[in-house]
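Retro notes (design track)

What went well: tokenization of the new backbones is finally stable.
What didn't: we kept losing track of which sequence belonged to which structure.
Fix going forward: every design gets posted as structure first, then sequence, in one message. First example under the new rule, 182 residues:
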């Protein structure tokens, strides 16, 4: 249940600038995902273009095992934001270390990001990217506006994973992969 803290206790104004905040956040190592959904009516008249959109997101995390819930957050300014709000489903694809090109395409690519991307359609008809380490096919359960982002909570209808591949890791503005500690 949503419970707000006592209303007479307000947060202090930050004593730092946004770049400092971003640098502190960047110390937290994350995996990297590409999240895909429908773009109904997109690219009309261009048969070479797909009807999907996708974005690179490192804000993915788990929420609940029962029911199976995950979350991620989307910048309000993303051009795909209206589609992620309206769509009933999306797929979270966890990228492998050899998918840095896919990561960059879905973060910075212009035009149809799926044109050079190999994928198969899942049960919901959305792209599951070839080579993904894991994928979560989600019902778009709820959205929560907070600051300049919207938190999406997805209810996982189906998921899958592969063994043996290394993950793509993002930390300190750089990409790497994992090495087990001795
Ligand atoms: C490593 C990495 C992680 C990112 N994580 C997020 C994220 O969690 N949420 C987000 O809104 N944008 C994130 N972005 C930026 C989006 O990928 C980018 O703004 C988006 O693809 C813009 O697409 P659109 O405007 O066409 O929707 C990330 C970018 C990179 C390179």
């Amino acid at each position: 249940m949503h419970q707000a803290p006592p209303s007479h206790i307000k947060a202090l104004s930050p004593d730092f600038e946004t770049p400092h905040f971003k640098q502190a956040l960047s110390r937290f190592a994350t995996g990297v995902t590409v999240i895909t959904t429908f773009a109904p009516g997109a690219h009309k008249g261009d048969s070479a273009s797909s009807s999907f959109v996708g974005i690179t997101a490192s804000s993915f995390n788990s929420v609940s095992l029962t029911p199976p819930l995950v979350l991620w957050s989307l910048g309000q300014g993303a051009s795909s934001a209206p589609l992620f709000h309206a769509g009933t489903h999306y797929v979270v694809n966890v990228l492998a270390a050899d998918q840095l090109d896919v990561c960059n395409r879905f973060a910075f690519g212009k035009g149809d990001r799926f044109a050079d991307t190999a994928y198969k359609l899942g049960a919901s008809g959305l792209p599951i990217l070839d080579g993904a380490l894991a994928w979560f096919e989600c019902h778009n359960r709820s959205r929560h506006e907070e600051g300049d982002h919207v938190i999406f909570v997805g209810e996982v209808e189906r998921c899958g994973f592969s063994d043996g591949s290394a993950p793509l890791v993002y930390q300190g503005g750089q990409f790497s992969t994992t090495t087990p500690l001795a």
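Added context from the reviewer: The two ends are 42 Å apart (CA to CA).
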